[in-house]
Design brief:
Length: 347
């Protein structure tokens, strides 16, 4: 169902209040040619209604010659902000940037956050944004789980499909995403509702089986046959299977970058208003697949960069892969059993 401008303004109003946007603050809205016009218009109205000083920055896309699809995360690293000191200065002088363009995994984003500016990414279609407006309860639940993840030394993941993989933990911070930015220098993504960390360098070993029906991002499709990945010392060493495995291998080989095969973030979804099935209902080009990343009880792992958590890896190849029906254990505590979040584990 489409959503009305009124519903979108109300949704933005809730998100801006949770992000502590107040009268007189500087709100910068970052957009590009692909930004959804309803999202842009209603963000502007809600920020003005909050009494903010609103500035729009409209930047042109880059990387067209390197990317293999229109997906916003198909090629990471350089962004339209690279070598643009005018836009960079404006954002560093803002209280919050509403990123309707997608400025992810870039040095410029780190620089903006370090200046104290908050950044809230919102690139899903209006219908998804309205369905999954964040709440304070989302934040409290994700933070409760993150306290347990922060103290864990080992994550063990298994599934009936054949996944049996171990990650050593402790070298990297835990990152919680719940869809708003209440503190200076915070980055978040609306909608969200999940948490993750990164395995220690060289500390991922075992087998991951991507089962039929699991989702690949940025491909944004459901795999139709099993893909088996063998991991040793932090890297995927083989990708086996039928056509889906061959497609994945060629996608990754096209970047010609050995770092693409590194295990990146690992965690689990906790957002009950996001769903595994919704990718089958929407235009693949209209979504970045945030439902798939956030749906309750997934085990979400990724391949590629770890600079988001302060690591050295900046490869442009980045895959997010949410698996269903997994059991996730932190040290001796089960936090997800057969794809269901166990809240008692971290309450
Ligand atoms: Fe990711």
């Amino acid at each position: 169902m489409p959503v009305s401008d009124y519903q979108m303004v109300k949704a933005w109003d809730a998100v801006l209040k949770l992000s502590k946007v107040e009268r007189g603050q500087k709100v910068t809205i970052l957009c590009g040619p692909h930004t959804h016009p309803q999202t842009l218009q209603t963000a502007t109205i809600a920020a003005q209604a909050a009494g903010a000083v609103v500035t729009r920055i409209d930047l042109q896309p880059i990387n067209a010659e390197k990317a293999t699809s229109r997906d916003l995360m198909n090629y990471l690293g350089e962004t339209p902000l690279t070598n643009n000191p005018v836009a960079l200065a404006a954002m560093k002088n803002s209280d919050i940037v509403l990123d309707l363009m997608l400025l992810l995994f870039s040095p410029e984003q780190m620089e903006i956050l370090e200046s104290g500016t908050k950044i809230l990414l919102a690139v899903e279609p209006p219908e998804v944004l309205v369905r999954a407006v964040p709440t304070e309860a989302d934040r409290e639940r994700v933070l409760a789980a993150s306290r347990l993840l922060k103290s864990a030394k080992r994550m063990h993941v298994t599934s009936p499909a054949g996944t049996d993989v171990t990650f050593k933990l402790g070298e990297f911070p835990t990152i919680s995403e719940y869809g708003f930015c209440e503190e200076p220098g915070r980055w978040d993504h609306w909608p969200s509702g999940f948490l993750f960390t990164f395995a220690n360098e060289g500390g991922s070993d075992g087998t991951i089986v991507i089962d039929r029906g699991d989702i690949l991002l940025p491909q944004k499709n459901y795999v139709s046959d099993k893909i088996t990945m063998h991991l040793r010392e932090g890297f995927v060493r083989s990708i086996e299977g039928d056509v889906d495995a061959a497609l994945l291998r060629e996608f990754m080989e096209a970047y010609n970058d050995p770092e693409a095969y590194a295990i990146a973030h690992i965690g689990w979804g906790m957002q009950p208003r996001c769903y595994w099935h919704t990718l089958s209902l929407v235009d693949r080009e209209a979504t970045s697949g945030q439902d798939a990343r956030a749906f309750e009880g997934n085990f979400l792992f990724s391949l590629g960069p770890n600079n988001e958590a302060g690591g050295p890896r900046t490869t442009p190849c980045h895959l997010d892969i949410p698996l269903r029906n997994c059991t996730v254990k932190l040290d001796d505590v089960v936090v997800v059993r057969d794809g269901k979040v166990i809240d008692e584990a971290f309450r």
